[in-house]
Amino acid sequence: MIRLGTTARHLRETLGLTQRAAAEALGISCVHLCNVEKNKAVPSPALLERFRELWNVDLYVLAWCLHGDADKLPEPLRKLMGDLARAWQEQIDVTAARNRRDVRSSCSASDK
């Protein structure tokens, strides 16, 4: 079973966002995001689209790459799954670095 909530939490934490900040960006309540991250609620198609729009991440693909059972795949696909997981993580890391730069520059601009 693919755990989208676990993946959503991993993404949020990697991006350095609080639950409150992520929920606000996604246009949902903190309670709903908490329930999604604890796998108590399934994200709607609209919420999945917001993840794609905001952070360029397809939660289903990322979840499969991070938490899927590679042993059930044919041998040639196992390597591809690992490669795809690494590529997603690199993309997330780039987005996280950009977010940190944006926060620093907005803080320094407000200091003036």
Topology readout:
Blueprint: H1 4-14, H2 19-26, H3 30-37, H4 45-55, H5 59-67, H6 75-111
Arithmetic mean pLDDT: 86
Report the top-level CATH class: Mainly Alpha
Counting copies of identical and different chains, the oligomeric state is single chain
CATH architectural grouping: Orthogonal Bundle
Can you tell me the overall shape?
Answer: globular
Q: How many strand segments?
A: 0
Sheet having the most strands: none
| Distance between the ends | 51 Å
Which spans have pLDDT < 50 for at least 5 consecutive residues?
A: none
Q: What value does the Rg take, in angstroms?
A: 16 Å
CATH fold-level name:
434 Repressor (Amino-terminal Domain)
Classification by helices and strands: mainly alpha
Total of domains: 1
Total count of helical runs of at least 4 residues: 6
Q: What's the helix-strand series?
A: HHHHHH
Fraction of residues in β-strands: under 5%
- CATH-wise, what's the superfamily? lambda repressor-like DNA-binding domains
Defining key terms:
about 110 residues; mainly alpha; 434 Repressor (Amino-terminal Domain); 6 helices; about 75% helix; single chain
Description:
- Helix content is 75%, strand content 0%.
- By secondary structure, the chain is an all-alpha fold.
- The chain has a single domain, classed as 434 Repressor (Amino-terminal Domain).
- 18% of the residues are buried.
Write a short abstract of this structure.
With 112 residues, the protein is mainly alpha-helical. The chain has helices at 4-14, 19-26, 30-37, 45-55, 59-67, 75-111.
